[in-house]
Design goal:
The complex is a heterotrimer. By secondary structure, chain A is α+β, with helices and mostly antiparallel strands. Chain A is built from 15 helices and 17 strands. Chain B is mainly α. In chain B, about 30% of the residues are buried. Chain C is of the alpha/beta class. Chain C has one domain: Amidase signature (AS) enzymes (Alpha-Beta Complex). Chain C has an 8-stranded mixed beta sheet with strand order 4-6-5-10-11-9-7-8, sandwiched between helices. Chain C is globular. The chains are: A alpha+beta, B mainly alpha, C alpha/beta. Chains A and B meet through helix 1, strand 9, strand 10 and strand 17 of A and helix 3 and strand 2 of B.
Chain lengths: ~475, ~100, ~500
Amino acid sequence: MDWETVIGLETHAQLSTRSKMFSGAATAFGAAPNTQACAFDIALPGVLPVPNKGAVERAIRFGLAVGGEVRRRSVFARKNYFYPDLPKGYQISQFEAPIVQGGALRIVLPDGAEKTVRLTRAHLEEDAGKSLHEDFHGMSGIDLNRAGTPLLEIVSEPDMRSAAEAVAYAKALHALVRWIDICDGNMQEGSFRCDANVSVRPAGSDTLGTRCEIKNLNSFRFLERAIEYEARRQIAICEEGGRIVQETRLYDPDRDETRSMRSKEEAHDYRYFPEPDLPPLEVTDAWLAAVGAALPELPAAKRERYERELALPAHDAITLTASRDTAAYFEEVVSGLAEAEQGGEAQARAKAAANWVAGELAGALNRAGLDIARSPVKARDLARLIARIRDDTISGKIAKEVFDAMWAGEGAADAIIERRGLRQITDTGALEAIIDGIVAANPAQVAEYRSGKEKAFNFFVGQAMKATKGKGNPVQVTEILKRKLAG
Amino acid sequence: MSLPLSEVMRIAALARIAVSEAEAEAVRGQLNGIFAMIARMNAVDTTGVEPMAHVRDVTLRLREDIVTEADRHAAFQAIAPQVEDGLYLVPKVIE
Amino acid sequence: MFDASLTELAAALAAKRISSVELTRLFLDRIARLDGSLNAFITVDPERSLAQARAADRRLGAGEGGPLTGIPVAHKDLFLTEGWPSTCGSRMLANFVAPYDAHVIERFNAAGAVILGKTNMDEFAMGSSNESSWFGAARNPWNPECVPGGSSGGSATAVAARMAPAATGTDTGGSIRQPAALTGICGLKPTYGVVSRHGMVAFASSLDQGGPLARSAEELAALMNVMAGFDARDSTSLERPAEDYARELARPVAGLRIGVPREYFAEGLAPEVAAAVQAAIDALQKLGATTSDVDLPNTGLSVPAYYVIAPAEASSNLSRYDGVRYGFRAPEYDDLMDMYCRSRAAGFGAEVKRRILVGTYVLSHGYYDAYYLKAQKIRRLIANDFAEAFKRCDVIVGPTTPGVAFRLGEKTADPVQMYLDDIYTVAVNLAGLPALSIPCGFGRGGDAGPASDLSRGGLLPIGLQLIGDYFAEARLLGVAHQYQRGTDWHRRAPPIGH
């Protein structure tokens, strides 16, 4: 039988506020244990929650960015359960009336196909602390610095059908929360965490199978491998006629498998009820409009604009809108180029800029493991380099050499070109002299070409470039060669 | 309504309160009395009535995103049952 | 000096007829003398109190005193008080020394009042008799065999026995008004949101409200002027301009429209209480008030709804007492689950555990709609009843309790019986309205015991309840003050300590 995997993701994005969701304690990562856990965070008696406007605003930003409905009136609720990293014995979350309802995210799969994943909701809540399992005489240590950090829990519909789709969704979501500046996306520090709900069903079936929730997926690779493992596990059970038990499973990256979480096995009964310490949260039309007005152009809109206005192909537009930094870099190259050229054809400039940003630069950044914001070659400098190609000062091939030198910190493009003498030979007389020499020295190849072997032409181009150390203007070289070889 | 003993035990476990069966049996009678009293609520039809979670129709004030709390962990941990290296110690947490 | 009002004490302090240190010592000595049998205080710390008194004397000396500067005030032991044990009447917090001050404490401190001690209370404010305290029951000064009411029983006893000029309390379902009634003093439960809950240990968050206990309405007004006020740390604190709660004390009662709810005089009300309350209504009519019947048809549902909502919120509020960060931890346990269960089993008393179980049950899966949601809907109906009534009257008047103080142990076996006694007080909390109780007479009770126990022929105080519309505290206090100008029930002192 053929099986279909059905996946929905629940993502916890830590909101990039300075202070916590309901207290004025700092949220900075890596502080000494419990030094950022204030009276509210450790749940001393009598301390009450006061919500952080910055966190609410970030949730609104998200709602607008995914086209969801931002509720004018949402309700905080208590989710009750006992755990040592949950000091109050309840988590303040949202249950029946989350701040964001619905919305969708467009994802691009590795093969270039595109798909829309619907979002169920996104709600505000507070994070728990951490249990440290190093041995303290057989005990666990509790650090509550993270307790109370604002989270946006983003729940997707079960719209994904493979681990690859789930990863594409997670990456798109990760890019979006960074794009709209609500989450730093640092997965090592746990700022962006995914739980996957996985089920399988016979291909063609339209009922959902029993799902398992997989936790602890703190990298895209683990997400992919955990889903693949879990789907295989469930299919194997089904094929043997077994039944899937609904449960929470933990992904173990060392063994590359998922296993049942004993501690979560107890029947969940969270006893949600409206948080009596907090009246309903209201978002006024004016606030919503102000947040909307301050929102940057979103990746989907930008991508569409690049394709429409700049005539970039889809794959370039997608690459260039992968992050807000990439798009900003690209746009700065384009504007730098426009300044340098003062006129000319905008779409051709954009294409040239796109080729460099998505090509040479992306490759170099990738090799160096650098984010584009930390590129040693700044956008304005790259623009000047591209301008030198487009005004025929250097060839595209030589430009790569110049780029490498810029990357190594040798200075601006023009300085490198001058210092290394890389300026293109555009003196027709000089080029003719060189080419005459080559034609004279290679009578056999001349004969070959003239007998109709067009391929021999490339030999002459190669010889000419070699003789000019790559500096011969390729267009001129071709033109002169054609003329000379024609005899 | 009459709560079975198993239900009393289930609630006690959910509330993290240790009870022996004998204690649960004793408390069961009291709980049944309380729930019989509570059942008087059923005398009134509340169809269409908006539930009231808060006394007055007030809206939530929001706090500016500013760090206002200083580190007081030494004072807080002075009243803790068991701490080490700034951490609260609990019996091993099993995940 | 023990019978002096706050105004008289302030005048004596201002005129240097007595210093705050002397005054504080007087009360500390009286506590030392009487509290062994009354058990109104959980913690008394003379050194700390006297240090505050010395500071108050300096302030008075500099001419910077206010109405409460230098006056000792006792605080219910659920107001967190930095450096003081703040036990909430529970073994769970028996060793809990608060690391910060409640808003109410901050305000009394800022006013220069002296913290006289922390008063006994039903554990986590759950009870109507003070018998659920881990530190033993407080006793009613009118008859130590009787309860002082609860949960603010220690505060009421302290004020009634003249061990404190005034005290603070909290009222979730009657916990200020009921003990005030049973001990013959005055207590005000303000509009929900008027007094900050910051630093007040939570019982039921949507119902809890702090308020003052004293011997007269005039004094309650002075205390409210200190206690009330906006606090951004409590999201349910109401942001309103500061008001003077004494501003209507002099206003005549003439023209006041009194609503008398039939439901508050139905079956279950002791005839002697009904008679005393009726006499008080008559007295108000003589002062020029008019009366009319009002309907509060859902009164009978208030106790059931209250005993769903309050335990539900409490079950969640008390989850933080888990033996991890502070409070009681069982000495022996097998594992984490066992540590939780044993710490909570031994740290909480029977009444608290009963309510946690009720609350856990009504919120649990499959029961939420039938209990919690239903109770919230009834809460709306009850609030609507009051809104209707206040279209036709300014103040609702009735009894605070169905009877006078009962004997210790009399109602502990049957919690439901004790709960049903809350019939006249809980609706006010569900609606969030202000209400106060003032003494209006004495009764013998059903089984008042041998007359030799008691003064005045074995009499126990009866309370009159005045309920107002939202923010009508000043008006309520004015009506009560005018009543007290013509009566002396509030001046009667229990037969002790002479």
